[in-house]
Amino acid sequence: MDPLVIYKKEAFDQFQTLIFRLKTAITTDILSIDYARMAMQDEMEKMIAEKAKKDPNLVKMLEQASANIKDIEILQAKQASQKAKKAIFQDEE
């Protein structure tokens, strides 16, 4: 068999595999979207906006709470990273 034909067939097969993997990854990502959660989040935002009109301090309290949550998440990520580093170094010893 001609080597050029074999080369072309292998390239085509690899391209088909790439296309299949891309389609699979895209479909998986689309199906993993939580549309119900997005709808709930929209409703919550509307409710907060309505309540913020009545109580201007509510927005400040929510912003502070959000900042506190972000700080906690950062701290937890740092702690997890430190634990992972310790575990890696303990395994090397």
Provide key terms for this protein.
93 residues, mainly alpha, 0% strand, 3 helices, elongated
Structure commentary:
- This protein is mainly alpha-helical and 93 residues long.
- It is elongated, with a radius of gyration of 26 Å.
- The protein has helices spanning 3-31, 35-54, 56-92.
- Helix 2 crosses helix 3.
- It starts with a helix and ends with a helix.
- The protein is built from three helices and no strands.
Brief write-up:
By secondary structure, the chain is mostly helical. The chain is built from three helices and no strands.
Low-confidence stretches: none
- What kind of oligomer do you see? single chain
Helix content class: over 70%
Rg on CA atoms, Å: 26 Å
Q: Percent of residues in beta strands? A: under 5%
The tally of strands reads 0
Number of helices: 3
For the residues shown, what is the average pLDDT? 86
- Going by helix content, strand content and strand pairing, the class is mainly alpha
Give the overall shape, derived from the CA principal axes: elongated
Report the span from N to C terminus. Answer: 56 Å
Order of helices and strands: HHH
- Biggest sheet, open or closed, and with what strands and sense? none
